[in-house]
Amino acid sequence: MDAAEAPPPPASSDAANRSSRRRLPEWRRCLSAVGRFAEEKVGRIAREDPRRVAHSFKVGLALTLVSVLYYVTPLFNGFGGSAMWAVLTVVIVMEFTVGATLSKGVNRALATLVASSLAIGAHKGASLIVSSENTESILLIVFIFFVASAATFSRFIPEIKARYDYGVGIFILTFSLVAVSSYRVEELMPLALQRTSTIFVGVAICLCTTVLVFPVWAGDDLHKLAASNLDKLADFLEGMETECFGENARSGNLEGKDFHDAYKSILSSKDKEDSLCTLAKWEPIHRKFGFRYPWSQYQNLGTLCRQCASTMEALASYVAILRKYQYPEANPQLYMKVQKTCSQMSLHSARTLRELSSAVRSMTTPSAMNKDLSAAMKYANGCRNELLQDSALLQLSDMVTQINEITESVNNLARLARFKNQEKARNDVVINVRNQ
Amino acid sequence: MDAAEAPPPPASSDAANRSSRRRLPEWRRCLSAVGRFAEEKVGRIAREDPRRVAHSFKVGLALTLVSVLYYVTPLFNGFGGSAMWAVLTVVIVMEFTVGATLSKGVNRALATLVASSLAIGAHKGASLIVSSENTESILLIVFIFFVASAATFSRFIPEIKARYDYGVGIFILTFSLVAVSSYRVEELMPLALQRTSTIFVGVAICLCTTVLVFPVWAGDDLHKLAASNLDKLADFLEGMETECFGENARSGNLEGKDFHDAYKSILSSKDKEDSLCTLAKWEPIHRKFGFRYPWSQYQNLGTLCRQCASTMEALASYVAILRKYQYPEANPQLYMKVQKTCSQMSLHSARTLRELSSAVRSMTTPSAMNKDLSAAMKYANGCRNELLQDSALLQLSDMVTQINEITESVNNLARLARFKNQEKARNDVVINVRNQ
């Protein structure tokens, strides 16, 4: 049906009449609205992280490479029907980060090797024990039942679930396939070899694509996550200072503010951090991340950041309750007295965190004596008596202790990962500038 | 090497000598230690949830059924090499719950249908447009590149990621495979039909096994999770009462107590709850869960429980800080005054939550007027002046408000899910008892 030939939609009112002035048929306008919505959504997702677009094209590229190999090389002619295993491998193994692709590829290759050897062994064993073909197939089915059950159960063991879940799946698949095929295929060995080699070709193509074309490193993401968590903690403290304790403290209302929502994302960052850390350990040396880089340190730092964020949550809920029951009006004197202390503690703590985050970002050792941290500690320690009158202050001073622990953790990371010395880094910059 | 023939291990000391009295060789003792450890671990995992063992055997059973079909029926003889697709489907589609298996099975079947149709269409289209075989294969490769890239990108859209991630993966796989095969296989249509029908056989076997043999329902788990979350909240309040506010209040130390760790698991229950809810919607009618059962209500209830747990966390961290700075000793009068109020609020709130959890468990409507909730509300409202002196009290009274919301949410659930009337349920029990 052409748009020009379509009857105009029945006009139910003047307004509808006006809006349909262009005489586009209903379904076309609907379609264009859906199109615009999808365009916006897709655009937003792509802009949020342009590496997603690159990854999509990388998957396309890897599949194209496999198909081209399939079309042109005599190699794949020899492989025959097994060539599809390379396609299957590429679709399953290609992941967003280098670490994930590498771990899946190795899992797949090893599981295939182990399972096919075991299945061929089972087949040979069965044919040695019994002579009749029927009895042999019954024996093989019993094998399949018990091996599949045991392997499935092993997936419930947390350590295996975390690291080898995918490998166990491939193991069950390959074992069943080879064991079942052994019944009909005369020459099992060449078939198993063919499949294994095509799978290796698929894994190799995935690894080349993922490392050589716009590589996405899990280690990079983990490093950036640590720095951004520190920034978010600093944001919250600065926001608290502005809204609640500062000289021009405004509403005292934290809900709906950007910094208030930001620290919540820290609380739920554990899973992402753990999986990035597992993947980062798989990745080869790249950029500034050398051999045996102390990735686990990021998990320690993350745990401390989450504890700090949880104290912040308690503090925020406390401030919200105070506001609800007009606490400042009820106790104006106490409120005035503690306001300055809180303001100073928040400001100095925020500056400490900012320095730490920029040290992590630039991979330089943070300065040994942090003046802001000492100032915050001084305020926290100096006014215990005042503190005892108000639990918000107690919580805030507890937070300063936690920030001290975070500082130590960043220092540890800097030492273990051999961050550059800050002085030296500055000199390097100066030399670079002079040389230009 | 036999154990009897093995030389005794070199005794480095008397102690070592005594321990190796039985003259077991080193590697055997090592092996038996590993065995005992594995046995304990496996035993614990199996006891924690015996359905895991059942699931493992179910996977074994489904694979055995596929293999038997492969061995005995002339049906599979006709399918030839495609029979392996049934094995592959079973390994991939079998999941722990009925809902997950059903959703994966439908995803797999639909994605295969759509992708093979599209690939065959692309093949036909390409052969219509160009005449040379080489040009056609180039055209097909270009198709694969763009379709795979677009489909991979769609996986980054959260809505698609949550529901159809697996389906999109299968779509890419099937499209590439059929498009690539089209180059070498003469008769594409029969091949595609064969594969699709074997996949349907695989999905059917999975569904039969998962529904007929010890079915595990995601809906059941979601329902039990809701009840146990309510119980954990009650546990915390009772624990608080015993440790901090009660007449024989002991240590005031909450760390390391069972109830203190329990509420933390509520905070991290969101992902599990969401995924169970998505899967429960896939499941057919079973037991007391009828058609269009209001599963989303469990998510509302869960959100309220998490808010309440988060207030509890704030309260617990507050109590910990008070303890750290010996607040009770510093302000004995205030502490005494608020202790009774806190104790009563905690006790009545805990009883309210217990009643709600038992109502959810037995699927009966909770009583319309909850005396304990009214008592807790009375304490919370009656002492605003005292409350203003201490923020712990403020937080506790805030929690009473939240428990009121939880009560409303459970009532909503009872109405929408048509829970039995409590009076009627009791009468039923009486009648049952009399009939026995």
From TrEMBL, chains A, B:
Keywords attached to this entry: Ion channel, Ion transport, Membrane, Transmembrane, Transmembrane helix, Transport
One Pfam family here: ALMT
Main location: membrane
Keyword presence, Hydrolase: no
Gene Ontology CC terms: membrane
InterPro entries for the chain: ALMT
Bilayer topology: Multi-pass membrane protein
Compositionally biased region (Pro residues): 1-11
Coiled coil: none
UniProt record, GO biological process: malate transport; monoatomic ion transmembrane transport
Record's subcellular location: Membrane
Spans annotated as Disordered: 1-22
TM regions (residue ranges): 53-72, 84-102, 137-157, 164-185, 197-218
Family: Belongs to the aromatic acid exporter (TC 2.A.85) family.
Name of protein: Aluminum-activated malate transporter
Lineage: Eukaryota, Viridiplantae, Streptophyta, Embryophyta, Tracheophyta
